[in-house]
Amino acid sequence: MPGSAPTAVPSTDLPRSRFASSVSAAGTAAVVAAASLALLWLALRLAGFDATLALGALWRGSFGNWYALTSSTLVRATPLVLTGLAVAIAFRAGVWNIGADGQLLVGAALATAVGLAWGDALGSAALPIALIAGAVGGACWAGVAAVLRTRFGVLEVISTIMLNFVALDLVGYLVRGPLQEPSHAYPQSNPIPSGMHLPFLIPGTRLHWGFALGVAAAVILWWAMRSTAAGFRVRAIGANADAARVAGRIDVARTTTNVLLVSGALAGLAGAIEVSGVTYALYENISPGYGYTAIAVALLAGLDPLGVLGTGVVFGALEAGALSMQREASVPSVVVTAVEAALVLLLLAMSRHGATAGVIGRFAGVRSASREDAS
After folding, report:
1. Residue 275 lies in a domain
2. For 364, left (φ over 0), alpha (ψ -120 to 50), or beta?
3. How confident is the model at residue 47 (pLDDT cuts 50, 70, 90)?
4. For all residues of the chain together, what is the average pLDDT?
5. For residue 283, what are the β-bridge partners?
6. pLDDT digits over 357-371, tens only?
């Protein structure tokens, strides 16, 4: 048709859009880091602590030297990146998965059970099988919420958060029952076989290959969301589920179920990596709330997978530095948790007035993503 001649515009706009998105993801991480430090400094001053001493301790514990960066910050960032990706893909589809913590716990439990039962017999295959088992466990746990949503209309906000408590009790039962170490003195499992340990990514540090898996997952998810039909369906449903169903002829129920399964698999993989790369055993409190912190990680990244890498590292640095502040400046580590919460509330309030709409958008990115996709 004569009115549709300028067909070259979309093809030239798309690369610029992707480049701008990547720059925006890096900028988001920088803004989050700066805002975190400003809020932390203010909180420390109001609480009567020496803010300069405390922030110096935080820096030394997170980025102060090569070992702190690799063995503390990046190790703590690994489960935050994977669970942040799990939350980001779900929220991008308008599926409010609040259960990443429970899915992580189930993934860790299943990976441990596989390792203890068959680790020695499987030999070199034990590690990949355990990681797959963890991902399958997380997907199955999210699948419970998916069935409740599609068959009975139960809001996933309710079901996923309730399943977190069930998973916590399940792990508590396992480490005090079937998987408890033989002496029955501690609520934990036996150590997994050494063949299930993730190799170290950098010799002389505690940084394992799980971090590389997290980076690979972020890149693959970023590409899939922007360059595949499945990614388009996810974005379309997140922008407007009714329009996607009517105009786009998209099976919304099937797509949201698949999204929940993928989200759960990423969180379950995080649990398996935590067991095989950090703890080497299943503990009752193996997750200090990674799945809940992941919500903030995803929100502040604008649900952009590459942005999740940056914000995951920022939150990993805050958590690593919190321990250093507690040791060197007698600052309770919970101060950092309060700062994380205040940061989320601040940026959400700013997005409501349009100041950070490009960063957060509709509940952290859905509306802004739809505007970008439409361009």
Report:
1. yes
2. left
3. confident
4. 84
5. 188
6. 443 444 444 444 443
Q: How many CA atoms lie within 13 A of 369 on its CB side?
A: 31
Chain centroid to CA 68: how far? 21
What are the helix and strand counts (H, E) for the chain?
A: 15, 0
CA distance 91 to 85: 10
What pLDDT was estimated at residue 52? 85
Q: Looking at the DSSP assignment, which residues form a beta bridge with residue 180?
A: 189
In Å, how far are 223, 267, 307 from 219, measured between CA atoms? 6, 16, 10
Query: Does residue 296 lie within any of the structural domains?
Result: yes
CATH of the domain at 245: 1.10.3470
Q: Which residues contact 316 (CB under 8 A, 6 or more apart)?
A: 62, 73, 74, 75, 76, 77, 78, 80
Torsion-angle region of residue 77: left (phi > 0), alpha (psi -120 to 50) or beta? alpha
The answer to whether residue 25 is domain-embedded is no
- Side chain identity at residue 298, one-letter code: A
State the total domains in the chain: 1
- d(C-alpha 184, C-alpha 171), whole Å: 15
DSSP letter string, 304-322: -HHHHHHHHHHHHHHHHHH
Residue with tokens 């959400």, as numbered in its chain: 348
- Measure the CA–CA gap between 123 and 224, rounded to whole angstroms: 33
How far is it, in rounded angstroms, from Cα 345 to Cα 59? 24
Which DSSP string do the residues of 183-216 spell out, in sequence order? T--SSBBPPPPGGGSPPBSSTTSS-BHHHHHHHH
Domain that includes residue 113, residue range: 35-181+192-374
Tell me the CA distances in angstroms from 180 to 102, 106, 192, 195, one per residue in order: 20, 16, 12, 20
Locate 374 and state its tokens.
């439409």
User: Rounded distance, CA 133 to CA 131, Å?
Assistant: 5
CA distances from 54 to 103, 319, 328 (A): 34, 13, 8
Would 187 be classed as within a structural domain?
no
Q: Which amino acid is at 76?
A: R
**How far from the centroid of its chain's Cα atoms is residue 98's Cα?**
11
Taking 80 as the threshold, does the pLDDT of residue 22 lie above it? no
Residues 141 and 158: their CA atoms lie apart, in Å, by: 14
Lookup: tokens for 223: 């590409």
Q: Which of 72, 54, 82, 33 is nearest to 316 (CA)?
A: 72
